[in-house]
Amino acid sequence: MLLRNIIIVAALVTATSASAQRPSDKHPLIIGHRGASGYLPDHTIEAYELAVAQGADYIEPDFVPSKDGYLFARHEPELGLSTNVAEVFPEKKTKKTFEGKEIEGWFSEDFTHDEMKKLRARQPFPFRDQSHNDKYGIPTLAEVLALRASLSREHKRSIGIIPELKHPDHYRKRLYPLEGWMSQIMEAWALDRAGSPLIVQAFDADSVKEMKDKLPNIPAIHLLEGDADVSDVGLAKIKAYADGIGVPKSLIVPVKNGQAGNPTDLIARAHRIGLTVYPYTLRPEKQFLPASYGGDASKEYCQYARLGADGIFTDTPDLALKAFHESCPMPR
Ligand code: G3P
Ligand code: CA
Fold this sequence. Notes:
four-stranded parallel beta sheet; 332 residues; binds SN-glycerol-3-phosphate
């Protein structure tokens, strides 16, 4: 299958530097999770722009493949929850098995680039602002990289990008080499060099290993589920192929009955062996923020910063920056 994501100007773009490892006196990297997805439909150009305007150091797009070999920014290959696909392509509804579960819906790999471009994004969380639904399109990886470069110029600082490949194991079996597609386009954009403002991430360990193989100069993060082995032995195994871990925040600050408990020593143990740590996902709504913070999201941001998180995935970069300016002052 042809790699469709590369555009010619890419090779002319020079990578700028952004460190993935923060000096300890600075605040954690603010990672605009799916863009400023607390405010706008996620994985849209508009959500990434807003994240950077709000102070994000990195933008975090997830990618799924189209039928004809483009990588599109979506959290799931099933498009029904986050777009208007049911209205635009009702006839394309089908059933597929993902990771052992049968799902009914519309799947990115059944749509061409031109069909994907007919879709508009929707806010998937019902308790968030729905007024921007059906306004914004779905960007490709190339479009997100072009945006990253132009936002870096506009804001006069190097904006980082931390892309995640979704379900790479599922697609590998179907001969969609997502890692190869991504690494080729990163090379074309000169984002494969040491110091590039790029971190790669995936939940699938084989995918992380393959990305590290293809982009050896780029930090690779293994995303862990809540039941992952984070013993010293488990961390040492991860260290053999990854530079860092992305962890559910509850592995760092456990929560019981809405109460945030005593922090674990995970960050300290990971740092001891040279793994960076990125908790996900800090969100201000009561559905996500433990009640013991009293509705004050700044307390949560500051807690993870004080515990030494290297970066935090957050849907509301503005609240993170405000916390790091006002509640627990730390420079960028
Ligand atoms: O990539 C970090 C975090 O985004 C993982 O969770 O499901 O939001 O992609 P998810
Ligand atoms: Ca993600």
